[in-house]
Amino acid sequence: MADRGDFVLPLQLAALGVRGRAVRLDRVINAILSRHDYPAPVAALLGETLVLGSALASSLKYDGIFTLQLRGDGPVRLIVVDLTSDGALRGYAQFDARAVEAALATVALDPVSRLPENPVPRLLGAGNMAFTVDQGPDTRRYQGVVALDGATLADCAHHYFRQSEQLATGLKLAVGRVGSGWRGAALMLQALPSAELIAEVDADERDDRWRKAVILLGSATTAEMLDASLPVEALLLRLFHEDGVRAFERRPLRDQCRCSRERIDRVLRTIRRSELDELRDAGGRVVVTCEFCSTTYRYADADLDALETA
Q1: Domain ranges of the chain
Q2: pLDDT band at 223 (very low <50, low <70, confident <90, very high)
Q3: What is the DSSP letter of 230?
Q4: Average pLDDT, integer, range 100-106
Q5: 100-103: which pairs have CB atoms within 8 A and are 24 or more residues apart?
Q6: CA dihedral sign of residues 192, 216, 151, 37
Q7: Element (H or E) spanning 119, and its range?
Q8: Does residue 192 or residue 294 have the better pLDDT?
Q9: How many helices and strands (H and E) does the chain possess?
Q10: Beta-strand relationship, 88-95 and 18-25
């Protein structure tokens, strides 16, 4: 039976002193990518960011919004993904279509992922990766920023963890066209703090266990990670059956944007009427399109008058 859900699955490898997350995206990734006319490599890069953001956000305890932003000077200027603590996921990419075409004109693309070799420097160029956790107006906002240092998004995430005070982290991402649609997956492992391990395990033994976990993680293939006929729990058993793997309850993810007429109203109230002319369509209405979900909001002059008097 096909395993076609969209979810994060917490896991633990008791014998190795490791915890982690498995992510699978099916309908959600297709819904998000299909709303825009992305070239396949741009769609794939956004897809990888969706699974990476889901893995990173699920490793944190927060009540609000986790945002992952990639900003570079290459053909893909910006990718933004955010995930609420209750599982609402969205994302979009900004890119120069001609520059993407030129950058990939003589480059072979992977037949599954549709990504070129070294996708980060080739598509994003130089820039940074930023993580933000926003838990509301009465809390302090957390942000971590690191350079886009690596050939792949997984490389960049590893660089972030090496530069921060986080635990040792291993990460594997997979995205690709499977049949008629996109699928995405991630496996993320983190070493437990030494205080959570039994006292007789010394530093060398912890290092050996961590190395084993990373080797086993690396043995997972893209085909396995994206295989809808292989439940993620079965994949974990295939990889870690000797190491006390335990899977916990799945946490569902859903495709949901937070835009609304009320939110757009609030933004337009902050903009001078004369500055809205560039947003007018052929019929004279101000048109605002959500970059995440492509929903269009239209305002006649009477609607703008109402905003000013509200």
Answers
A1: 7-255, 261-309
A2: very high
A3: S
A4: 96
A5: 100/39, 100/41, 100/42, 100/75, 100/76, 101/39, 102/75, 103/74, 103/75
A6: negative
A7: helix 119-119
A8: 294
A9: 10, 14
A10: unpaired
Both tokens of 152, joined, read 């792949």
Within 10 Å of residue 267's Cβ, how many Cβ atoms?
Answer: 10
Identity at 126, one-letter amino acid code: A
Q: pLDDT at position 284, please?
A: 93
In this prediction, residue 120 carries a pLDDT of: 98
Using CA atoms, how far apart are residues 246 and 223, in angstroms rounded to an integer?
Answer: 22
User: Which residue shows structure tokens 């927060």?
Assistant: 62
Report yes or no on whether pTM surpasses 0.70. Answer: yes
CATH 3.90.1280.10, applies to 261-309: yes
CA 32/CA 30 separation, integer angstroms: 6
Pairing of strands 88-95, 254-255: parallel
CATH architecture of 7-255: 3-Layer(bab) Sandwich (3.55)
CA pair distance 181, 305, nearest whole angstrom: 44
Q: pLDDT at residue 194 above 80?
A: no
Beta carbons within 8 Å of 269's beta carbon, 6+ residues apart: 307, 308, 310
